[in-house]
Amino acid sequence: MDKNYGELYNILGWGEEYFAVNTEGHLSVKPFGRWTEPGQEIDVHSVIVEALATQPNDSTSKSQFPMILRFPDVLKNRIETLHNAFNSAMESTGYTSRYQGVFPIKVNQNKHVVQDMVRFGQQWNYGLEAGSKPELLIAMSCLPVTEAEPKPYLICNGYKDADYIALALSARAMGLNPIIVLEMEEELAIVLDQYKKLQQKLPDDDAVRKKFEPVIGIRAKLLTKLPGHFGSTAGKHGKFGMLADQIYEVAETLGKEGKLHWLQLLHFHIGSMIPTTGKVYDAVSEAAGIYCNLVNEHGAKWLATLDCGGGLGVDYDGTRSGDSDMSVAYGIQEYASAVVQAVRLKCDYNGVAHPVVCTESGRAMASHHSMIILETLSAIPEPQDEDTSEQLLNRIQDLSYKQPRAPVGGATAAVYSHAADLKKHGIEMYKLGKKLGKRVVADANTVYNYHMNLSVFSLVPDFWGIGQLFPMMPVSRLNEEPTLKGTLVDITCDSDGKIENFISRENTLPLHLFEPSLGGYYVAVLVSGAYQEAIAGKHNLFSGPTLVRVNSSTTKDGGFEIERVDLGPAADEIIGSMRYSVEEDIITVIEKKAKGTEEEERVWAWEMVEPLMTKALTTMPYLNEYKVPEPEPEPEPIP
After folding, report:
1. Residue 35 carries which DSSP code?
2. Residue 219: which of 232, 209, 234, 200 has the closest Cα?
3. For 579-632, what is each residue's pLDDT tens digit?
4. What does the alpha-carbon distance between residue 612 and residue 614 come to, in Å, rounded to a whole number?
5. Is 142 a catalytic site residue?
6. Which of 308, 347, 358, 493 is an active site residue?
7. Cα dihedral sign for 397, 398, 401, 404?
8. pLDDT one-digit tens code per residue, 243-259
9. How far is it, in rounded angstroms, from Cα 330 to Cα 307?
10. Is 254 exposed, middle or buried (0-12, 13-18, 19+ CB in 10 A)?
11. Directed axis angle between helix 412-444 and helix 389-401, to 10°?
């Protein structure tokens, strides 16, 4: 490859471990991170081509854009990196307990993602965090039931009613390890009440009843705050948790009830994307202080785990900066070291045994393993308000052919008149030349609207909702200089459906001339595996994309295997989610209207409508095989 234009997108900043541009000028994935060997990179363009040719699971339809490509090996590498970082930090500092984390299901509730998290983390007893009853059910189905200790944590966060708490208590009866984290003081009363009811269903055996007693945690509302968007719900006036004095009151209540041994975890979360390790250290140190006070001053000797919540950030823009919501000034190892050091020093100072360290690092685990692939439909320059360069040049040429003629004879008045005409002509030529120069510069900066097979609201809702920026770049032709400046326009009927802010802090993205004759031109939205699917909207009843699961090949270098292709929701499923009965409210009504009345029967109309309606209902709502028909050739003139 003569030239690598990946640098225009700062791929070495945000993508150094997992993404590169290969010798074909294609975006490639390094599935094993820094341990990826030469030849093991996966060519993304090749994956797209093969995915389009692969028959989707449980469908007779073809694969369709937009699509998400998932690389489970990247997910596995992220989990390994997290555990290696904490183990290294603990070994190097003499930390005497262990690290045992959980994945927050809310980050990506997709079945295969959650199952992968559990499977890849099993050797470290990696668990799950749930924040609602549906997520709790997912966790109960995915976590293994085992007698081995320590068991994976099932952290139960969020506001809870009696049904939520009863369900969590029943998970312990199954042999899982749920920990009910109290968000408010009054939740303790619900736990006590539901446990009494559960006891009635347990065998009349004290040993069994003891085994299935609740394990609870308390969420601390810390005073440490973050700057920017992600810190807006933290601090004293934050949405979740209890202040220190309230926590101590709950401990006292548990003691009076003879249930203080239930309290085994202290949890906090100061917000996503903690910008610096200084902020990490401050928050963990504050929480560790509360932990030590619970042990030393309130008799909570069964307290054994400090859950540091989420906040391990992602460097979306590749700047390694602590001054932006789009970046963090550290990596996983620095984060782990800050957490471990803060806990160790606070506990050693207070004479408290080192607790198990838990984190709920979801964004940093899931972001890198998937990318959204957008298909270009067309690229159109934004209209200019003034004359084009060609029009200005034609006007200059016309003037040059129409210079004022010199007067016949030498009359003084005629000479002065000719001089005035020449001056006027020259000024007009000068103005047009200056205008042409500006027009040429403007042409070089023409912004092209790239119309993409995309709904911003369904695929990158964080961009629309909170201004989140993601790395974006072409999948191919990265050995050619991208000479155009583009914005990405979606296909929804909404003026907000446009991407015109990028990690470069520019309002355009460098793109190539769109030439359909060269094949598809695709743009990848990278580091997008966290939250986007979970909070996607249905604006215009567009919905989720095709999901493609890509494994590294075990038989050849640089190869890959597409494990499965799952189409996104078809129109009938999306319409049904809005409380329509597709059969009664859509199909039957349309059929009746198409056929008409008995007096005016139009069977032919139904015969025309029915196959088109069926196709529309059973396929994804995005544009499919979009192509502008070639104009029919003009008939040859009759001789």
Report:
1. G
2. 234
3. 999 999 999 999 999 988 776 778 888 999 999 999 999 999 999 888 877 777
4. 5
5. no
6. 493
7. negative
8. 999 999 999 999 999 99
9. 20
10. buried
11. 160
